[in-house]
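Workshop exercise sheet. Pairs work together: one partner reads the sequence aloud, the other fills in the structure field after running the prediction. Swap roles for the next sheet.
Pair: D.N. / O.F.
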Amino acid sequence: MGNIGQADDTRTASAAMGRAPDPDVRTEPHSPVEAAGGSGGQQILVGLSTASVYPQNTESAFRYAAEIGYDGIELMVWAEPASQSIAAIQAYSRKYGVPVLAIHAPCLLISQRVWGSDPVAKLERSVRTAEALGAGTVVVHPPFRWQRRYAQGFADQVAELEEHSHVIVAVENMFPMRADTLFGRKTGSAKRLERRGGPGPGVTAFSPSYDPTDTGFRHYTLDISHTATAGADPLALAARMGTGLAHLHLADGRGAAHDEHLVPGEGTQPCVELCAAMLRSGFAGHAVAEINTQNARTTQGRAGMLTRTLEFARTHLNAPAPAPTHASQL
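Structure field:
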């Protein structure tokens, strides 16, 4: 997720967010397959990314998840010390009755020094942390171009980690650095993308590509906001990911030059159609709300955005998929 910095200890959710935690917290692994099944069809677990509550802190994300009704948390490991501490996260999970579904490895530009400077060691530590917390998935970005040694061995490392762990490593689609970023981040860049039919001039900061299907991995994370910025078709990308699509970052975008992470349904991406196609394909992974709530003026406003996102997911991912209306299906 773009534009995320160190979480601070600003005021957390309102006092109304005080639901008593469940007495027992699940600690067994949460594999994508585990989310499938149940009477009447798939039961896809819907998690909340801790990045979605920034600038509030990691504990606040657990509190929001418990009060609003999310099934779990995706932990973004970043500069906040608590996000790096297994003991702290275990304490939050017990306190609020919310399990950890996934770990987002510290691979953002702003987290390049979190857990040291060696990306190989950081990815391995992310998997070990997931194991300790009972999470079934690690989300990781493709390597940056300047991380040459890491990039050369990245695919092999991902495969080896998965071979020796129940945790899957789901590589996430990213987006190019667009030239029109220089001309403003507001509606103008989205209109330019629409007129051109694509993002226009840009360069990839990732090796070999911001699209992980160019390399080929066993498991993928599909981020809908990133497809908007890249000017990519999320339905086509999901089809290329195929049965390897194991994790969804649920958001939206309008095609701006920066990563927007809007509430799903409030941008231009075919979020409803994508969810339907994923259900038809038998998707059995986790869907995680990864939205930007930094502009929320109050905790109630932030909670409202998180609630709308969860309602969207429950409506479109835990309901029978409608019959396809066009050829773009998985």
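Discussion prompt: The chain is about 35% helix and 10% strand. What would you look at next?
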